[in-house]
């Protein structure tokens, strides 16, 4: 279980995504709008992914999902269209309490930095 002093992000009226930042400078998960399908996550550090390669990207967040739920890391169409970068569509088990990390793929001919 995560400590009770964690930050919380509202999902629905009675469901809450609990999370902790592993360091203070980590970005909070955010919803772009009240009707967003999920939360936007950001990397904890600057990363480079070599051309036609992959990298494991750390968000610096540990989460506790609402009971009966699982997490899904979904690709962002903007990244795919503009930079030819996609994620591994990762699934987070409901009982997972470690740091959230995302496999990112670079399908372009150039190293991608973000």
Protein traits:
9 strands; 5-stranded antiparallel sheet; two-stranded antiparallel ribbon; Deoxyuridine 5'-triphosphate nucleotidohydrolase; Deoxyuridine 5'-Triphosphate Nucleotidohydrolase, Chain A; single chain; globular; mainly beta; nucleotide metabolism; 114 residues; disordered N terminus
How does the SSE layout of this entry go?
Blueprint: E1 7-10, E2 16-21, E3 48-49, E4 53-64, E5 71-72, H1 77-83, E6 85-87, E7 91-92, E8 99-106, E9 112-113
Antiparallel strand pairs: 1-2, 2-4, 3-9, 4-8, 5-7, 6-8
Function: Involved in nucleotide metabolism via production of dUMP, the immediate precursor of thymidine nucleotides, and decreases the intracellular concentration of dUTP so that uracil cannot be incorporated into DNA.
Cofactor: Mg(2+)
GO molecular function, one term: dUTP diphosphatase activity
Textual characterization of the structure:
By secondary structure, the protein is mainly β. The protein has one domain (7-113): Deoxyuridine triphosphatase (dUTPase) (Deoxyuridine 5'-Triphosphate Nucleotidohydrolase, Chain A), CATH 2.70.40. It is 6% helix and 36% strand. The chain is built from one helix and nine strands. It has one helix at residues 77-83, and strands at 7-10, 16-21, 48-49, 53-64, 71-72, 85-87, 91-92, 99-106, 112-113. A five-stranded antiparallel sheet has the order 1-2-4-8-6. It has a two-stranded antiparallel sheet with strand order 3-9. β1 and β2 (16-21) form a beta hairpin. The longest helix has 7 residues, at 77-83. The N and C termini lie far apart (32 Å). The model is unreliable at 1-5 (pLDDT under 50). Keywords: Hydrolase, Magnesium, Metal-binding, Nucleotide metabolism. It holds the Pfam family dUTPase.
């Amino acid at each position: 279980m995560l400590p009770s002093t964690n930050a919380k992000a509202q999902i629905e009226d009675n469901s809450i995504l609990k999370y902790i930042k592993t360091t203070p400078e980590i970005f909070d998960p955010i919803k772009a709008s009240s009707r967003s399908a999920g939360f936007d996550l950001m990397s904890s550090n600057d990363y480079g992914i070599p051309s036609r390669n992959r990298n494991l990207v750390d968000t610096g967040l540990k989460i506790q999902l609402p009971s009966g739920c699982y997490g899904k890391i979904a690709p962002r169409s903007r990244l795919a269209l503009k930079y030819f970068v996609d994620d591994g569509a990762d699934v987070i088990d409901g009982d997972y309490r470690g740091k959230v990390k995302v496999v990112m793929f670079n399908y372009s001919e150039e190293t991608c930095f973000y």
